[in-house]
Write a structure and sequence with these properties.
Length: about 120
């Protein structure tokens, strides 16, 4: 069980890093220091990657969603599920991070997956 938890936390850290999270942010979420996060997940954050990603596409459960950073710095999303249902984040880019917007977009895509499809 411990190995699976470590694998999943590393995967979450790498995903967050790919969306622009810093080691400081990863450490804050996990209750450890920035240095502790860097030691625990040395490849999670790319030093050359920009921290302000403008858009990103998420493809899960047969649907797609686009994550968009607003001029105010918040994040939103628009998407279409595999069943054809369109959806979007509430107006005003309410999410503080790309990871939070991706989680909500992913939940929408899962809810509107093809019948019988439970794989991303």
């Amino acid at each position: 069980m411990d190995g699976e938890v470590k694998r999943l936390t590393e995967r979450a850290a790498v995903t967050a890093g790919s969306y622009g999270a810093s080691y400081e942010q990863l450490g804050a979420v996990w209750g450890i220091t920035r240095q502790g996060a860097r030691k625990k997940w040395p490849d999670a954050v790319s030093r050359t990657a920009p921290t302000a990603v403008g858009t990103s596409t998420l493809a899960l459960f047969g649907g797609t969603a686009e994550l968009v950073r607003s001029p105010s710095g918040g994040w939103g999303w628009t998407g279409r599920g595999a069943d054809g249902t369109a959806g979007a984040a509430p107006d005003g880019a309410p999410y503080a991070t790309a990871e939070e917007a991706a989680a909500h977009a992913g939940a929408f895509l899962k809810e509107h997956a093809r019948v019988g499809s439970d794989q991303p």
